[in-house]
Amino acid sequence: MASKKSLNLCRAFLSNNRYVPLRQSFPNPNPKFQVLNQVSSQLFQTRSYSEIPKQLQHKPSVDPTLVPTTSPAAETLVPKTNETQKKKNIANKAPVSSSLNAFEIAKFSAIADTWWDSEGPFKPLHAMNPTRLAFVRSTLCRHFGKDPHCARPLEGLKIIDVGCGGGILSEPLARMGATVTGIDAIEKNIKIAGLHSERDPATSTIEYRCVTAEKLVEEERMFDAVIALEVIEHVAEPADFCKSLAALTVPNGAMLVSTINRTIRSYAAAIVGAEYILQWLPKGTHQWSSLVTPEEIALIMHRSSISVQEVAGMVLNPFTGKWVLSDDTSINFIAYGTKNNL
Fold first, then answer.
1. Staple partner for 118: which of 126, 140, 240, 250, CB 3.0–4.6 Å?
2. More confident residue, 106 or 7
3. By three-state DSSP, how is residue 43 classified?
4. Rounded CA gap, 149 and 64, in Å?
């Protein structure tokens, strides 16, 4: 007869919702997150996807009259700093440590040529991209008072795509009117992204650089919105990485981060299922102990002066093969926060 613990494991695996009691049965394999877990629940009071009014959820048919227009315009967000003072600040600033993970860089360098192959190793990202973009467009339009229905809803916004890879997110952001900078630590990714973007006049203006977020902090670059999707699970120190992202965000600006939750369901689906059974991803793409929970993200961002406003799960419909936004954050989730006006 199966033990009570075995039954709990089965229920957790089959459940469509997070099985919270099970979390206590598995010690966190990554000690650096233990302190975060003790206090993060007190900060994680963000709005869930179902709490957003239906008219404002991330769908193409949002009524633009319901989008608030009182958010500060993007051009008023960048602090005024003269060039002399900026150079002085750069000279006096201590070097910023890098959050690069050499193992992760080597791993993704090996498959860089396949970024634009929708049936290759990055097939899941291509399939997820429309859902990610719907969330990005909706949250940024609401925050900056933009019309999500117009042809270029992100017109006038300076956006950086951190860990841009081959540019599969940067290009649609540029087509929506944003002034886009894409950065990646892998030079091969940047070359591929640049060559691909030159094919379309709407994307040829993207600034691609092989540089780290920490380096741009030293240069005192700032953006209205900082986006890092499916990146934080591959860096050496998530807290330091988020601190750099926050430093790149203007006061009252927006920051978006997406990743995979650290749960038994994510291990079964994103690692065992996607990497070993279905082979959608190369084996070893994700390390379960390096994954970050929504609660940990909320605390890390809070410590970097970013207030998480909204978290949504991204769920794959196995029957249609389409990704949808949901309250279920047990596997994939995306978080949107705003920087405090210091």
1. 126
2. 106
3. helix
4. 7
pLDDT digits 0-9 by tens, 128-137: 999 999 999 9
Classify 285 as helix, strand or coil: coil
| Per-residue pLDDT, 233 | 85
H/E stretch holding 320 reads none
Q: What share of the chain is helix, strand, coil (3-state, %, to 5)?
A: 45, 15, 40
The predicted pLDDT at position 124 comes to: 85
Three-state SS sequence of 211-228: CCHHHHHHCCCCEEEEEE
Strand pairing category for 306-316 and 223-229? unpaired
Residue in this structure with the two tokens 């591959």, named with its chain if needed: 234
Backbone angles phi, psi at 70, to 5 degrees: -100, 0
**C-alpha closest to that of 154 among 235, 71, 225:** 225
Got the DSSP string for 71-82?
SPPGGGSSPP--
Tokens in use for 40? 């993060």
311: closest CA among 37, 46, 43?
Answer: 46
Q: What is the mean pLDDT of the chain?
A: 76
Question: What does the block give as tokens for 159?
Answer: 């956006």
Pairing of strands 223-229, 158-162: parallel
Please, which residues have CB within 8 angstroms of residue 181's CB and are 6 or more apart in sequence?
158, 159, 160, 161, 206, 207, 208, 209, 221, 223
Tens of pLDDT, residues 7-38: 444 444 334 433 332 222 333 444 444 444 44
Among the listed residues 227, 230, 194, the one whose alpha carbon sits nearest the alpha carbon of residue 209: 194
pLDDT digits 0-9 by tens, 47-103: 555 666 555 555 443 333 233 333 333 333 333 344 444 444 433 443 445 566 675
What is the dihedral sign for C-alpha 95, 101, 102, 105? negative
